[in-house]
Predict the structure.
Amino acid sequence: MDIDALSTGLVAAVESHAQGLGLFDAVNGHEPIGSAAPGNGITFAVWYDAIDPAPLDSGLAAGSGLITMTGRLYTPANQQPYDAIDPAVWSATVKLMAALALDFDLGGLVRNIDLLGAFGPGLSAKAGYVTTTADNTQLRVMTVTIPCIVNDLWPQAAT
């Protein structure tokens, strides 16, 4: 397992799917902490959230892992018409989730995206609001949980 290739490859694979959809004004491989609000379009960002063992898929020699990434779609909540904000963000979220489901091994980087939640929350999204720290703008967001199962993430041995 090439951990360095995996660490850059997973985020890059999700970014590539997001960019390929042509729905986002910007796509970032990091959480935009302290950034100014995006323009009136939709911005997407993805970053690592958690690494956990996947005990049911681990053996005596190697442990499999559950790597969870967070993706977030952002758009200003104060743009007109207000009634168009949620449908646009929702539609982009569903299209992104569909693209991830269609390439559920992310080009062979992972065994699979845990689409249905065999090891915890599956591929899912939750709506909310975030306020930027740079300019205090309220954003409408959809936060996407992207759980990935990776075989043999780390070696295991008794001493």
